C-alpha cells in the first residue's frame, strides 16, 4: 500500500464564518479530494486510546461543537463540513495506516496528533498538497507550508510566562530560574524560550531534561532546588507536572511553577498532588482557559454545556473550537476564490490574516512565513471549583522579549 507514494455564540465569532459563500453554492467551484456537491470532509488522525486520549477526546468535541454551529448556519460554500476520524493510539505505524486510508477521502486534516506521527506523515502531506493542523505548538513546524499551527509556539508561551513572573516580582536580574523539560521537540522548543529570557534579563538558567516516560523526577527536582532557582518552568506531561510539584513540596522547595498548557490536565486536581498544584502552579497558554471571562470562551462554555451536559470540559474544548474557526476561515477564502482544491486551500491559507477569534486567542495570522500565527498568552491558575479546572489570572499580553525574538528569527 505504501509503494504508491515515496513513503449560540457571540456576533464576532458568527461573523467570521458567515458570508454569502457559506449559504450559497457558487457555480464553477474547483474541487478535489474530500469535496462533493454537498460536503467538505476533513480528517482527524489522533490518539483516542493512548497516552494523550484525554486531550484528544475533548478536543474532538470542540471541533464537533464548532462544526455543528457552522453547519446550522449553512456550512461553507453551500456544503456541510464533515469529519472522518482515525485513532492511532500514539503508534507511528497505526498513524501511517490511518493516514493512507484517510488521505484520499479528505480535503485536509484538522488534527494530526503526536510529533512522531506528524514527522512520519509530513513528506506525504507535501507530496499530496494537503493542509494539516498538528496538535502541537512546536516552532519546528513553522517552516512547513502545509502546517497550520494555531497559536503561539512553546518558546513564546514560556517567555510570556516568565514575563508574568518578572512583572509580579517573583524573579529579577541576577536570579536563577529552573526548567524541567521533556527531551524532545516539545520540551526543546520550550527550553529555547527560557534560554532566551535568561540571556536577555541577566539571569542564570538551570535546566533538567527528562524522558517522555520518566516517572521518578526526584533527582531533577533536587538539582533545581540546589541551583537556587526562584521559580521553574515545567514543559512536561500532566502526570510529570503533578509528580514534580509534589516532590518540590516534599523537599521544602516552595517556588512557583509556570507550566506549558500541554503539561496541565484538570484531572491532576483529583490526584494526591492536588494541594501542591493548587498552591504552586500557574499555566501559560495562547488559548484561553475554558469558561474564561472573555466573550468567545464564555460563549463556547455555554454552548458546550448545552450540547454535551454529561461531559466534563477542559481547555481542549477551546483548542478544538479555535482550530475549527481557523480552518473555516481558510475554507471561506478558498470558496471566495472558487477553488476548493488542495492547491486552492494552500493559497488561501497563506493569504489568511486577522482571524478574529473573539478572545479565544489573539487574532490569528498565517501569511507570515516561518512566524507563529499568534504571539500573546494567557496566564491561569488551577481551580478545582471551576469547569475546566483553570481560573484566569491575566488576559492576553505579549512580552517585549517576544517581539525581540521575532526580529532575530531566521
Structural account:
There is one protein chain. This protein has helices spanning 11-17, 20-23, 53-72, 92-102, 115-128, 154-167, 185-201, 218-226, 238-250, 274-280, 295-307, 316-336, 342-349, 400-407; strands at residues 39-46, 80-87, 108-112, 132-134, 176-182, 204-210, 231-235, 257-260, 281-285, 377-382, 390-397. It has 410 residues and is of the alpha/beta class. It folds into 2 domains: 2-152 and 291-349, Response regulator (Rossmann fold, 3-Layer(aba) Sandwich); 154-285 and 377-407, Rossmann fold. Helices cover 40% and strands 16% of the residues. Helix 3 links the parallel strand 1 and strand 2 (80-87).
Q: What percent of residues adopt helix (DSSP H or I)?
A: 40-55%
Strand content: 15-25%
Mean pLDDT over all positions: 92
CATH superfamily membership of the largest domain: Response regulator
The spatial strand order of the largest sheet comes to 6-5-7-8-9-10-11
Distance between the termini: 39 Å
The poorly predicted ranges are 1-20
Number of helices: 14
Radius of gyration, in Å, reads 21 Å
User: Which architecture of the largest domain per CATH?
Assistant: 3-Layer(aba) Sandwich
Count of the separate structural domains: 2
- The best one-word shape is globular
Name of the top-level CATH class of the largest domain? Alpha Beta
User: Structural class, from secondary structure content?
Assistant: alpha/beta
- Report the strand count: 11
CATH topology of the largest domain: the name is: Rossmann fold
- Main beta-sheet annotation: 7 strands, mixed
Amino acid at each position: 500500500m505504501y509503494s504508491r507514494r515515496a513513503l449560540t455564540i457571540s456576533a464576532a465569532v458568527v461573523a467570521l464564518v458567515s458570508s454569502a459563500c457559506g449559504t450559497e453554492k457558487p457555480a464553477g467551484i474547483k474541487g478535489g479530494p474530500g469535496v462533493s456537491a454537498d460536503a467538505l470532509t476533513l480528517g482527524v488522525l489522533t490518539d483516542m486510546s493512548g497516552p494523550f486520549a484525554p486531550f484528544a477526546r475533548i478536543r474532538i468535541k470542540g471541533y464537533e461543537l464548532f462544526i455543528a454551529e457552522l453547519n446550522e448556519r449553512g456550512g461553507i460554500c453551500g456544503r456541510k463540513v464533515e469529519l472522518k476520524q482515525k485513532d492511532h493510539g500514539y503508534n507511528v505505524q497505526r498513524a501511517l495506516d490511518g493516514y493512507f486510508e484517510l488521505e484520499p477521502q479528505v480535503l485536509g486534516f484538522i488534527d494530526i496528533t503526536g510529533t512522531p506521527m506528524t514527522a512520519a506523515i509530513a513528506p506525504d502531506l507535501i507530496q499530496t498538497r494537503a493542509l494539516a493542523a498538528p496538535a502541537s505548538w512546536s516552532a519546528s513546524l513553522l517552516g512547513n507550508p502545509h502546517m497550520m499551527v494555531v497559536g503561539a509556539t512553546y518558546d513564546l508561551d514560556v517567555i510570556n510566562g516568565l514575563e508574568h513572573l518578572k512583572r509580579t516580582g517573583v524573579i529579577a536580574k541576577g536570579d536563577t530560574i529552573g526548567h524541567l523539560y521533556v527531551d524532545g521537540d516539545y520540551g526543546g522548543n520550550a527550553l529555547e524560550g527560557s534560554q532566551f529570557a535568561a540571556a536577555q534579563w541577566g539571569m542564570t538558567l538551570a535546566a533538567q531534561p527528562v524522558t517522555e516516560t520518566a516517572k521518578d523526577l526526584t533527582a531533577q527536582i533536587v538539582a533545581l532546588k540546589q541551583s537556587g532557582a526562584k521559580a521553574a518552568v515545567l514543559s512536561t506531561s500532566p502526570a510529570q507536572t503533578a509528580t514534580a510539584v509534589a516532590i518540590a513540596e516534599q523537599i521544602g522547595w516552595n517556588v512557583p511553577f509556570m507550566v506549558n498548557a500541554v503539561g496541565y490536565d484538570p484531572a491532576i486536581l483529583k490526584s494526591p498532588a492536588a494541594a501542591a498544584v493548587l498552591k504552586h502552579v500557574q499555566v501559560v497558554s495562547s488559548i484561553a482557559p475554558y469558561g474564561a471571562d472573555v466573550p468567545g470562551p464564555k460563549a463556547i462554555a455555554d454552548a458546550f454545556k448545552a450540547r454535551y451536559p454529561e461531559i466534563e470540559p477542559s481547555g481542549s474544548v477551546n483548542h478544538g473550537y479555535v482550530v475549527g474557526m481557523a480552518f473555516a476561515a481558510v475554507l471561506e477564502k478558498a470558496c471566495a476564490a472558487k477553488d476548493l482544491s488542495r492547491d486552492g486551500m494552500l493559497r488561501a491559507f497563506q493569504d489568511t490574516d486577522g482571524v478574529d477569534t473573539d478572545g479565544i486567542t489573539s487574532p490569528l495570522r498565517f501569511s507570515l512565513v516561518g512566524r507563529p500565527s499568534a504571539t500573546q498568552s494567557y496566564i491561569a491558575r488551577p481551580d478545582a471549583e471551576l469547569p475546566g479546572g483553570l481560573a484566569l489570572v491575566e488576559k492576553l499580553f505579549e512580552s517585549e522579549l517576544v517581539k525581540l525574538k521575532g526580529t532575530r528569527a531566521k
